Amino acid sequence: MSNLDAGRLHDLTGSRFSLHDHQAPVGTPDWRTWVLLGGRGAGKTFAGAWWINHLADVKDRRFALVGPTLHDVREVMVEGPSGLKALPEQSKRPRWEAGRRRLVWSNGSVAHAFSAEDPDSLRGPQFHQAWADEFCAWRRPEAVLSNLRLGLRLGDDPRLMVTTTPRPIPALRRLLAEAGVVTDRAGTQANARHLSPGFLAHLRTLYAGTRLEAQELEGLVVEAEGALFRAEDLARARGNRPATLERIVVAVDPPASAGGDACGIVIVGRRDGRAYVLADRSKGGESPQGWATIVAQTAREFGAQEIVAEKNQGGEMVRTVLAHGGCETAIKLVHASRGKAARAEPVAALYEQGRVVHCGAFPALEEELMALGSADGGGRSPDRADALVWAVTRLLPPPKAGPRIRML
């Protein structure tokens, strides 16, 4: 299946609606699982219904619809205001067969409804594609997910879409870390024009700067216990880029191997004792030549005076790789002698002091920051967060410790 264009009107079985960028599976063409993390009202249900309806144009397709309960599948995914029956024009709408718990299109395509409360109900049936809704609300998410995937064995290109408001549960973190998973994120604001007037403003008045806002409205995976970076500090950090900056650096956290973790690439500038995060160009699945080329292009684009790269994974070879990628900017190699959380503590303090500004929306980066210091570290290597820590530390180094007195 080819990528689908977003941000324009689509002729979706007679649909009269348009898509936001986060509501179509764009990006990596060989994805196996598409995860859409969104705030309340961000349009997650619409995206899932749009995708399944689009695929149902092909004759005799078989789909699985999985929700927290059968009631949720019918009332939200099928018959809800953004559900499968609401999108097509009247003449092309599928019919719901309550007795068989399935949705049937006129061309023979069928979507079967399943409850996440009964993982064993997914044993036996087989499908071309599946849509799983509110994954984080399932009682046994990994048991349901494994059975569902074992049933995705029809056709040449079986795929899974997962839509959910995120929660910091291990099952979600493991899902996001899997190979072949692409992730989109969207806050409630992205779909504000389709919501009741005043809804978003009222909720922001109540919850602005809290973890509840970050999770339920911004759609971020928010860590709690032991986390160094607080949602309220990250929310307060958003601001505009100054007209001029004293210095700009590109920080790089190289991956341990090609095709493994992402290469963290974060651009930060400094002015008047504050650090300004300009962009996050982190990229996964790249060869050393690939990520080095991205770093070189990024340094030229932002007019960086220096590239700061961690050398723990490759030593001086990191400098050679960057040079082969076309880097003409000065390179500063840094060595991590302390753990990630320990290195991040002074930077977290700068956020608390309001001395770091995010000049844009960086949801993936903010998720990794909020995972630093938590019980399991979020389940993934915090490549973006680590790169940011190196950049901010380089531009705003912590004061050196003074002389100490030891009592004898």
TrEMBL record:
The keyword Transmembrane helix does not apply. Keywords: Viral release from host cell. InterPro entries: P-loop_NTPase, Terminase_6C. Residues 251-392 form the Terminase large subunit gp17-like C-terminal domain. Signal peptide: none annotated. It comes from the Bacteria. This is Terminase large subunit gp17-like C-terminal domain-containing protein.
